[in-house]
Amino acid sequence: MSTARIRRGIVAGIDGSDGALEAAAWAASAARRFEEPLRLVHVLPKHPNSADGHPEGDEFLDAAERTVLDGQRDLDVERSTHPGPPAHALVELSKTARMLVLGPAATSEMKSVVAGSDVVRVSNRAECPVVVWRGIQGHEVSETRPVVVGVDGSELSDLAVAHAFEFAAFFGAPLVAVHTWAEHSTLGAWYSEERRFTDWSDLVQHEEAWLAESLAGWRENYPDVEVTRCLERGGPMKVLLEYSFGAQLIAVGSHGRNPFTASIVGSTSQSLIHHARCPVLICRKG
């Protein structure tokens, strides 16, 4: 008998902010493509007194429901409130959800490091993919703008590739797979001081072949997805931020570092959460 966990629904966190409403509208567009119910969730700051009720939360959920339906009835919408704190409640919901969708981080990247951020906490701990809304190019799923995925060969990168192919297939969108390299990164035997000022064409060919091979199985599983492979010289953080300008979604893996450690060693996912020009899909093992 299978013990695999059944995941259902796209969960959108609602906190009354404009960003959360925009994120919910994107989540509704994605839910229609995935043919999943949309679950609008408001997290209360503390356990509510049942006699007092929670009218503010109801108002937030009412506004979100109006936004996602927009006069239509083509979407199964569920709504609920949960006791806080927000990050804990959303991580608990991630254990059974297909996807979480959150509004943009309400703090700067530096403040997230010092004081923490619920968006970063959830992204680093969730047991399902998390989409962090970056509302630059509208909330409708597009069949023309690509889904972009960062590829580095790690286990979590492979997970991001799997989800990126799935999203591209459901969206009917092209996929752009981006792999980066730099002289001073871990290039193994390819790098030495003697090679520093030499022709890097052999390395580029090697990396191109590796990227093609790493995507081959997924291309067989999703033959209708148009795939473009891109090999870029530079750091992944800078390169992927540039690709986010033309993307509708950018997918990366997250190792779940705490914000302070991420600030020291560099976290591509955290930088994208704060600066990307499109929604960011954070993939973790669940």
Percentage of residues in DSSP E strands: 15-25%
Unreliable parts:
108-116, 260-266
CATH architecture assignment name of the largest domain:
3-Layer(aba) Sandwich
Q: What's the arrangement of strands in the largest beta sheet?
A: 3-2-1-4-5-10-9-6-7-8
The number of helical runs is 10
Cα separation of the termini: 20 Å
What would the CATH topology of the largest domain be?
Answer: Rossmann fold
State mean pLDDT (0 to 100 scale): 83
Largest sheet: 10 strands, mixed
Specify the structural class. Answer: alpha/beta
Radius of gyration: 20 Å
Give the tally of structural domains.
2
General form: elongated
Name of the CATH class of the largest domain = Alpha Beta
Helix coverage percent: 40-55%
Total DSSP E strands: 10
* Helix and strand pattern: EHEHEHEHHEEHEHEHEHHE
List its salient traits.
286 residues; 10-stranded mixed β-sheet; alpha/beta; 10 strands; elongated; 41% helix; Rossmann fold; 2 domains
Structure notes:
The chain has two domains: 7-103, HUPs (Rossmann fold, 3-Layer(aba) Sandwich); 136-286, 3-Layer(aba) Sandwich (Rossmann fold), CATH 3.40.50.12370. α3 runs parallel beside α5, α4 crosses α9 (259-265) and α8 (236-243) runs parallel beside α10. The chain is α/β, with parallel strands linked by helices and 286 residues long. It is elongated and about 65 Å long. The chain has helices at residues 18-34, 55-69, 86-93, 109-115, 118-125, 155-171, 201-221, 236-243, 259-265, 268-275; strands at 10-13, 38-44, 77-83, 99-102, 130-132, 147-150, 175-181, 227-233, 249-253, 280-283. 41% of the residues lie in helices and 18% in strands. Strands 3-2-1-4-5-10-9-6-7-8 form a ten-stranded mixed β-sheet, sandwiched between helices. The two termini are 20 Å apart. It has ten helices and ten strands.
